[in-house]
Amino acid sequence: MATSTHRRTLDPAASLLRAYAASARVNPYLIEQLHPTLWRAKVPGWGTKTIAGMVAHLHNCGLRYLERTDQHASVPAELDRWKVTPAQAIRALGAKRRAVLEIVGEALRAGRRIVGFPHDAAQYLAYYMIHDAHHRGQIALLARLLGHPISPKTMQGMWQWGARARE
User: Fold this and answer.
1) pTM above 0.70, yes or no
2) CATH code for the domain in which residue 24 is found
3) Domain residues for 111?
């Protein structure tokens, strides 16, 4: 019986962009699943930290690098941590995801860095995937401390990258 030796050629840039797309979609997914009372609630001893503020920070980080590129018109505006609503955050995170895929995707294909970022475009994506995951962990902890832990179904959904990437 003959076996096929045909293998799909790996495209590292496309794989990394797909991974970023899925990871970035987890952020709005998590917001969609949160109990509404959590958005601005404060945990004693945590100062002014709220989930709204963490999400605004998560969104705002990295925008300054994207704004320095020739394609800056597609970069969304920053979010105000004191005023942002869950719906605004979800829309803004979607816009940031699209801008990153466009701008960083082009930089990856061209072998360029993101202007002002000290590392290459691939490391930009890796850095912000890790950054987002860190803050998702903080959000999950804050939800637990506020008496509304993230459900097991939602936690599993955060790991279903294939489903998130298709959304």
Assistant:
1) yes
2) 1.20.120.450
3) 12-166
Per-residue pLDDT of the chain (167 residues; tens, 9 = 90+): 555 566 778 888 999 999 999 999 999 999 999 999 999 999 888 888 999 999 999 999 989 888 887 766 789 999 999 999 999 999 999 999 999 999 999 999 888 888 888 889 999 999 999 999 999 999 999 999 999 999 999 999 888 878 877 77
The count of domains in the chain is 1
Structural domain contains residue 5: no
Give, in degrees to the nearest 5, the angle at Cα 129 between 40 and 59. 35
**Secondary structure of 122-138 in the HEC alphabet?**
HHHHHHHHHHHHHHHHH
